[in-house]
Design a protein that fits this description.
By secondary structure, the protein is mainly alpha-helical. The chain is 74% helix and 0% strand. InterPro entries: GPCR_Rhodpsn, GPCR_Rhodpsn_7TM, LPA_rcpt, LPA_rcpt_EDG2.
Length: 357
């Protein structure tokens, strides 16, 4: 429980979340405003779409053996990160607005840590995909020769680093004992941590863009040197299509997340004139929208993925119809209903007669 007494001089470990919000200038409303309803409605709608669409991607990768290659395992892990992001934002929607005032500091750190973990997992997955594509393209192969065990270790490493990054503020990089350094957007976070986190992600974006630019330049030069043999042309087209798909995924990620990271960076640098609180929640929804963009890209860019989506959805529809058929009795006409009742009566009379005999 948070209480209103300082446990040591200069520290505010036992103060409430409301105290830090008031000190940082981010007021918590004790009643629901129209803006709060709009944000929560938009956020929850996006979250449900994100969860469903990424479950579809993960199911497609498990179902179709054509996707049992390192690049698709990494893209599947990216879908898992997006799924985790949807769950994290759904949790946030139930702990935002006037609900924030009821949170303990532990609950607040959990809320923020889930979001930090999901973003870090997405960024590291995209970096792993970029490295994998760099390796395969420069060897002019469609799929990497990495073993399944190695891919598994990469995925585990990604999640370990992501969880640690989400726990860093809780483990000490906060402003509970440095009140003047508290962030405005995240009042229990230290400004220096926001600067570190935003710069690290923006730097990672820049590295990935540089890697993909180098790949495209190489592929363009190499494709001119390739012969006009049909097999080579088809192979080149397949490689380019997969490259375009992962590049679109990266591009959408950068577009959706960069505004939010820039705002975090400005807040961390103490920009008082930037009015970050006006756009904070809208940029948060924009960032979450990225998590359902990826399945849309898969659907339009990959025929096998699109057909697998259709198979899964068709299977789900058939199961729901079969369930309805077993759980409901339909009478097309009144005559059928009367006939059914009379048949039931005849059956019962027949049983009684047998019993008497």
């Amino acid at each position: 429980m948070d209480i209103l007494n300082d446990d040591e001089e200069g520290c505010y470990r036992n103060r409430t979340v409301k105290f830090f919000y008031e000190e940082s200038g981010k007021n918590i409303s004790d009643h629901w405003r129209k803006r709060d309803y709009v944000i929560v409605t938009m956020g929850m709608t996006v979250c449900f779409i994100v969860i469903f669409s990424n479950l579809l991607v993960i199911g497609a990768i498990f179902k179709n053996k054509r996707f049992h290659f390192p690049i698709y395992y990494l893209l599947g892990n990216l879908a898992l990160a997006d799924l985790f992001s949807g769950v994290s934002y759904l949790h946030l929607m139930f702990h935002t607005g006037p609900w924030t005032i009821k949170l303990s500091k532990y609950q607040w750190f959990v809320r923020q840590g889930l979001i930090d973990t999901s973003l870090t997992a997405s960024v590291l997955n995209l970096l792993a995909v970029a490295v994998e594509r760099h390796q395969t393209i420069f060897n002019m192969t469609l799929h990497s020769k990495m073993s399944t065990r190695r891919v598994f270790f990469i995925i585990v490493f990604i999640w370990l680093v992501s969880i640690i990054m989400g726990l860093v503020p809780t483990m000490g990089w906060h402003c509970l004992c440095d009140l003047p350094n508290c962030s405005t957007m995240a009042p229990l976070y230290s400004r220096s941590y926001l600067v570190f986190w935003a710069l690290l992600n923006l730097l990672t974006f820049s590295i990935m863009v540089a890697v993909y630019t180098r790949i495209f330049v190489y592929v363009r030069r190499k494709s001119r040197q390739m012969s006009q043999h049909t097999t080579q042309i088809r192979h080149k087209e397949t490689v380019l299509n997969l490259m375009k798909t992962v590049s679109m995924i990266l591009g959408c990620f950068v577009v959706c997340w960069t505004p939010g990271l820039v705002v975090l960076l400005l807040d961390g640098l103490g920009c008082d004139k930037c009015q970050v609180l006006r756009v904070e929640k809208y940029f948060l929804v924009l960032a979450e929208c990225n998590s359902f963009v990826n399945p849309i890209i898969y659907c339009f860019r990959d025929k096998d993925m699109r057909s697998t989506f259709k198979e899964i959805l068709t299977c789900l529809c058939r199961r729901s119809q079969d369930h309805r058929g077993l759980s409901e009795v339909h009478f097309s006409t009144m005559e059928h209903e009367v006939l059914s009742e009379s048949n039931g009566a005849d059956d019962s009379n027949h049983k009684q007669n047998n019993h008497s005999h």
